[in-house]
Amino acid sequence: MPWVRLHGIKDYYGMAWLAQEHPGVHLTFNLVPSLLDQLEAYARGEAEDEALRLTARPAAELAEGDLHAVLSAFFMANWETMVRPHARYAELLAKRRFGRRTAAQAARDFAEQDIRDLQVWATLAWFFPQLLADDPVLRGFVRKGRGFSEEDKAAMLAKQREVLASIVPMYRALQERGTAELSVSPYYHPILPLLCKVERAREAMPELPMPRGRMDFGDDARTQVARAVERYEAAFGRPPRGMWPSEGSVSPEVPPLLAEAGLRWMATDEGILCRSLGCSLHRDSSGLLREWETLYQPYRVAAGGRDVAVVFRDHYLSDLIGFHYYHRPAAEAASDFVARLDAIGKAAGRRDAFVAVILDGENAWEYYQESGMPFLHALYAALAASPGVSTVTMAEYVEAHPPAATLPRLFSGSWINSDFAVWIGHAEDRRGWELLAQTRQFLAERAQQSPPPDGLAQAWEELFVAEGSDWFWWYGDDRSSAQDAEFDRLFRGHLKNVYRLLGARPPQVLDEPISQPRAPAYTRPTAFVRRAVDGRRGGFFDWSGAGLYERGRDGGAMEKGGADQIRAVYFGFTESEAHFRVDFRNSALAELPPGARLVVAFSEPREVALEAGPLRGGTPHVRVGGAESRDGRAAVRDLVEVACPFEELGFRPRETARFHVSLLDGDTLLERAPTRGNLAFDIPTPDFEREMWQA
Q1: Which of 111, 380, 462, 513 could make an S-S bridge to 22, C-beta 3.0–4.6 Å?
Q2: Co-location of 347 and 453 in the same domain
Q3: Residue 351: exposed, middle, or buried by beta-carbon count in 10 A (0-12, 13-18, 19+)?
Q4: 406 phi and psi, to 5 degrees?
C-alpha cells in the first residue's frame, strides 16, 4: 500500500521543513522504527507498492486489470484540498464519475494521455506544497499541468526518491540543532500491554472474552522495545530519551520495560490519568479545564528499580488541531489556540502548567488547505511570539522539572476510549490473537532445537511484524476500509511465512479469512435532510433522502427476553450537520425508565459519543464526548431526533462515519441498533447532491 511513500513526500517531509523554518519552537516528533525502515527502503529503490508499480508502468502497456485498478485507486486523496485545486486532476475526477460508473465503464472514456496524466497527478498532488513551489522540476510539472510524457513521469518518480531520502536526515539535523526531540515507539508498533499480559484488557472491560491459548508474549514486548532503541540509535547517533507506546497503550508492565531500555519518559492520554487516579476532569463551555493542576504536570511511575516520567496529553486541545481548526482561517485558528494557552497560564498564575498536545503527525493535514502549511506557520509564529508560553520538548521539561507527583497505579488502556477494544474487543480480533499464539508456540518449539534451524531469525521477524497493532485495527465491526481483505491476507501471510521459513507447511486454518462480511441491511443517504429538530414524524419527504436502518431486517430482538423497542433509525445530514431520528414501537417511549438516554456511538472517523437524555421529562440535554454540546439539539415527542454540527463532532468531509445507536439506562444497555456491526455514511461536501445525481 502507498501510504508511507505518499505521506513521506507530503507530511513527514513537510513537518520537518516547517520545524526548520521555526527554530524557536521546540517540538517532539515520534518516529516508529518500522517506518524508518520503509522510508529508507523506498529511498534506496528497494521498496515497492502496487500503486507505485502501476505508476511506473508505461500507460500504453497497462493491462485491462491494471487500467481498472488505476481508475479505482488513483483518486485516493482529499478531493477538496488535493484534487480540485489542480485543474487537470479535477478534470480527470469529473470524467471518472465515481458513484455512477464502475472503473470498467469509465475506462472507455480515458485515452492513453488521460491515464498517463492521472499516473502523474496521483503522486504529484501529494508532494508538500512548498516542494511544488520551490523545486524547479516539480514546479515545471505543475505549470505544465497536462500532456505529460513517460520521461516526465520518470523524472517525477526520481524526485520522489530524492525527497524520501532527505526525510530521516532532516529530522536528525533538527535534533542536533536542539529544535526537536525525536522519540520512538516499539519496533513494529505492537500494543505492549496485550503482549505483556493479555488479561489487562479486562481492566477496562471486565466481561470481555479472552482469546484461547497461551498468551505469554512478554519477551516479545521486551524485544520490540529494545530493538526500537537500537534502531533509533543507529539512525540518529544517540539513544532516545522517550517513547510514545503504540496508540498510547500503557499498563503496569510497560514502565519497567522502558526503564530497562534506558528510556526516561512515556506519554498517553488524559483518560488514562483519570482512570488511574479515580477522578474526573471538567471543562467549561470554552473548553478550559477546571482541574488544570491535575493534568498539567508529569507524574512519576514506578518502573522496577527506577522511575519513568509519564505525561498525559490534553485531549481537547489535541483534537482542536486534529479535527477542528481546518474549518477556520489559519490566523484565526492559531490565535484561538494561543488564547486558550494564555487562559491556562492565567489560571496557573506563577506556577508552571505543562500542557502536552499530542496527535497524529500526518493524518490531519490532508483536510487543511495546503497540507496545513498556512496554519502551522501561523501557529508556530504565534507560539514563539507569546510571552507567557514556552515550547519545550518532552525531555527538556521532565529532565529540568522531575515529576513531583507519584502515580500510585497505572490504569491499563490506550488513547482510544481508555481501553483496548479496538484490538481485542471483537471475535475477529480474538481469532487473530489465537492464530498468532498458535504460530508463536510453533516457533518457540523450533527455536529450542540444536542446532537452530535455518531461517529462525527471519521467522521471528515475521512474527514480530504480525504483532503490530494495525492488523487488529481493521478486524471487527467498528472499523472498515476498502482494504480489509488485503490487511487480513497480509496478516495471515506473515504467520504462514513463519512456517515456510522453518521448512514446514502452514496449517490450513491460515488459509481461512478472519475478516467476515458483516454489513447490516440499511440504505445510505442520497440527499440532504431539511427539517427542524422537533421530535415529530413530519411528512414523507422530510427524511426521504436519509439513510434508513429497520429493525425488522436485522434478525429480530436481542437476547434480552423482550420485544425490541427501537423500530428504525434514520440518519442524514445537511451540508454542516448530522441528523438522526430513532423510531420506537408503540408506547415504548412512554415506558422507558426515567433516566433513559440515547447514544449515537461513533467508532470512525474518531471515537466520540453523541448523547441525548434523559428521554423523559422535557427537552433532553445533548452531550458530545461527555461534555455539554455547544450547538447540538435534541427533541422527544413521537420519536427521538438529534442533530449536531460535524465540526463539533470533529468530522471532516469525505471521511466515513461508522456508528451504532445505544439505548441505555444509566450504564445498563437496554438495546443496540443494529444488533451487530455498524451503520455508515460519508461526511458530505456542499456538492453532495450534485455528485449523487449527476448523469
Answers
A1: 380
A2: no
A3: exposed
A4: -110, 135
CATH code for the domain of 223: 3.20.110.20
Could you give the angle at which helices 13-21 and 150-177 cross, rounded to 10 degrees?
50
The reply to whether 386 and 350 lie within a common domain is yes
Q: 201: domain range? A: 185-406
Q: What is the mean pLDDT of residues 514-518?
A: 79
Q: Using an 8 Å Cβ cutoff, are 403 and 264 in contact? A: no
Q: Can you give the pLDDT at residue 519?
A: 65
**Do 204 and 338 belong to one domain?**
yes
Measured distance CA(560)–CA(556) in Å, rounded: 11
Q: Which of 123, 147, 177 is the last residue of a domain?
A: 177
CA 270 to centroid of chain Cα atoms: 17
Q: What is the pLDDT of residue 556?
A: 39
Q: Residue holding cell 415504548?
A: 588
Per residue in 461-471, pLDDT tens? 999 999 999 99
Query: Which three-class secondary structure state does DSSP give residue 290?
Result: coil
> Would residue 573 count as lying in a domain?
yes
At 579 the three-state DSSP class reads strand
Which residues does 133 contact at the CB level (< 8 Å), separation at least 6? 139
Give the Cα separation of 347 and 342 in Å (integer): 9
| pLDDT per residue as tens digits for the range 47-85 | 999 999 999 999 999 999 999 999 999 999 999 999 999
Is the confidence at residue 583, as pLDDT, over 50? yes
Tell me: cis bond preceding 245? Omega within 30 of 0 counts.
Answer: no
424-450 burial: b if 16+ Cβ within 10 Å, else e: bbbebbbbbbbbbbbbbebbeebeeee
Strand pairing report for 242-243 and 679-682: unpaired
Flag whether pLDDT at 691 surpasses 80.
Answer: no
Distance CA 633, CA 647 (A): 14
Cβ contact 58:148 at 8 Å: no
506 and 540 both lie in a single domain:
no
Distance CA 398, CA 124 (A): 41
The answer to whether 49 touches 39, Cβ cutoff 8 Å, is no
- The phi and psi torsions of 307 (rounded to 5 degrees) equal -105, 155
Average pLDDT of the segment spanning 513-525: 82
**Among the ranges given (162-171, 394-403, 625-634), the one the predictor scored with the smallest mean pLDDT:** 625-634
**Among 486, 511, 536, which residue terminates a domain?**
511
CA nearest to 51, candidates 40, 66, 34: 66
Length reported for the chain: 695
Residue 581: closest CA among 532, 646, 518, 654 = 532
Domain membership of residue 621 (yes or no) is yes
| Between 40 and 537, the higher pLDDT residue | 40
| pLDDT value at residue 695 | 38
CA 92, chain centre distance (Å): 29
Q: Beta partners for 663?
A: 598, 671
Strand segments, DSSP code E, in 420-546 are 522-523
Over pLDDT 70: what percentage of the chain?
97
| Whether residue 171 sits in one domain with residue 190 | no
Q: Which three cell numbers stand for residue 647?
A: 465540526
Q: How many CA atoms lie within 13 A of 493 on its CB side?
A: 7
Interval 270-298 mean pLDDT: 93
Phi, psi of 472 (to 5 degrees): -75, -25
- Pair (488, 564) in one structural domain: no
Q: CB–CB of 26/391 below 8 Å?
A: yes
Instruction: Say how many domains are in the chain.
Output: 4
The pLDDT score that the predictor gives to residue 554 is: 66
Q: What is the mean pLDDT of residues 165-189?
A: 97
Higher per-residue confidence, 321 vs 99: 321
Distance CA 373, CA 340 (A): 21
| CA pseudo-torsion sign 207, 209, 210, 212 | positive
Residue 113 identity (one-letter amino acid): Q
Q: Quote the pLDDT of residue 677.
A: 79
